[in-house]
Amino acid sequence: MTLSKNSTSYPSIADSVLKWLLVAVGGLSIVIMMLITVFIFTESISAFKIIDIERFFFDERWNPTAGEFYMLPMLVGSLLLMAGSIAIAVPLAVLVAVFNNFYAPKVLSVACRRLVEILAGIPSVVYGLWGLVTLVPMIIMIQSPGTSLLAGIIVLAIMIFPTITILIDSAIRSLPKHYIEASVAIGLKRWSTIISVVLPALRKSIFAGSILGAARAIGETMAVLMVCGNVVQLPDSVFEPMRALTSNIALEMAYAMELHRSSLFVSALLLLCIVFVMMFGKEMILRDKNHV
Amino acid sequence: MSEQAVRLERGSHYDLDNLATFIAWSGFIVVVLIFVWILGEILVNGISVISWEFLTESPGNAGRSGGILPILVSTGVIVFICLAFALPMGVATAVYLNEYTLKDSRFAKFINISIDVLAAIPSIIYGLFGFVFFNNVLGFGFSLLSGGLTLACMVLPFVIRASIDGLKAVPDAYRESSTALAMSKSASLFYVIIPSAMPGIIAGFLLGIGRALAETAALLFTSGYVDRMPSGVMDSGRALSIHVYDLAMNVSGGDANAYGSAFVLIVVLLVVNSMAIYIGNKIQRRQLR
């Protein structure tokens, strides 16, 4: 490959024009990334110039038009949604991936993979619609008002588990064959093989899948906006309504002016920081080469 | 596909093993239940709304009655604009990364990092960015153009990755032969390498369409809410996903048409996504060979 690249004997003008054109277009993704971060940062900084950072955590309430910027409940809400949905989605994803590879008859494993792939492609607004019309009334039967942290966690868990499943499934399939052969050779049964050989070998993939799912959960807007009730408060129980950072932007951006608008960019900045920290952590842990 | 060489023996005399089998099967049953419950509900409730009139009329009474024709048109225009920018940019970036640079060149590394970052940014932040940059700084206002461009930024990393997969599946012998025939680099790209990478590029194209169709949050402040027929790309228009959201959340009594619109959205997405998956699997098989 190395040899065939850059090895044309007679570079024509067309070739060098094409090359520089490609360099320019290739640089565009860098430009877009820069533009996004610069816009979010500059707009947030204009908020930080006027509002002290601690006021986002200790103000009385969230009422930006009246100069109150209590953003903590939304940050906590987003983190709760993320933690809850991951706690449900990751075990389910591991289970389904293990089923596909070790328990399912061939026909069923193919069918199951198809179902998971289809679920992964359903748009979030459809999950939101389903949550609003079906799930929320069911939660009302347990406790009002139905639109709640719990509804958000369930819808998010259903949304993110297909992606995690696909990732873990392909990690199991790329496990070296001799792991399993050796385990069978020393007489381990199926379950013991999975518990003591397969899952330990997969722990990095499971971790990577969890991070991927967590990043999607915290960035998700529509489904959360539709089923969580959007009341700005620290929820006392899972049945209480709450508002996520993403929903906050979606709900208020349309009419926000000046300082209110800048404070919404602070929401965006918080989101960006959380996602970047997660990505960075994933890179750090996966840097070790001995993983599957 | 599942080439588990060794079928593990079932240890039926261990209770624990039987319990484990039961648990593993219950995972499968949960998947089937979720699938049937969600898709079944949307499809059953949606199909009763679908009619020729629903697809060819304008919405009336805030969407409670009438059809979705202008919304389909707006969606089509947004997706077209999105792919018209994202596809050439994505393919060009992929060609540059895979055919022109070495993996450890600093510029290539930087591009790769930015692709990862772009893929990880939540869609609502793209919406915010599009609102500031395309609507205000470039002055497009609420328009199909700024919606499409915002989505183009969002799907770009996915188009790039799929195209790179396609290019990687092209055997090096092709590159070597075209060099041996003294073809210029550009000729070999356009006549040999890109045509052989077509499956990956088409998969990227379909993946992009799927992403663009499914997106809602990034369009809230870029293409807008207006549900009449758009008069041009600078006019505001409502995408199908936003129509579903608006009917479900803001219009009481809009549930029936929300289901109908969700039905249309899902059917289109199923077709697009399964084509992308089919082609993607084909490429993988070719690489294994």
Topology readout:
The complex is a heterodimer of chains A (292) and B (289).
Chain A: H1 13-50, H2 55-58, E1 62-63, E2 68-69, H3 72-103, H4 106-120, H5 124-142, H6 149-173, H7 177-185, H8 190-219, H9 222-227, H10 245-252, H11 258-286
Antiparallel strand pairs in A: 1-2
Helix pairs in contact in A: 1-11, 3-4, 3-6, 3-8, 4-6, 5-6, 6-8, 7-8, 8-11, 10-11
Chain B: H1 15-47, H2 52-56, E1 59-60, E2 65-66, H3 69-100, H4 106-120, H5 123-137, H6 144-168, H7 172-180, H8 185-196, H9 198-214, H10 240-249, H11 255-288
Antiparallel strand pairs in B: 1-2
Provide a concise account of the structure shown.
The complex is a heterodimer of chains A (292) and B (289). With 292 residues, chain A is mainly α. Helix content of chain A is 74%, strand content 1%.
Tags for this model:
heterodimer; A: 292 residues; mainly alpha; MetI-like fold; 2 domains; two-stranded antiparallel sheet; 11 helices; 2 strands; 74% helix; 1% strand; globular; B: 289 residues; disordered N terminus
Query: How far is the N terminus from the C terminus of chain A?
Result: 25 Å
Radius of gyration of chain A: 24 Å
Helix proportion range of chain A: over 70%
| DSSP E strands of chain A, number | 2
CATH topological fold name of the largest domain in chain B: MetI-like fold
Per the principal axes of the C-alpha atoms, what is the gross shape of chain A? globular
Count structural domains of chain A.
2
Helix-strand makeup class of chain B? mainly alpha
Q: What is the topology, as strand order, of the major beta sheet of chain A?
A: 1-2
Rounded to the nearest angstrom, the radius of gyration of chain B is 23 Å
Total beta strand runs of chain B:
2
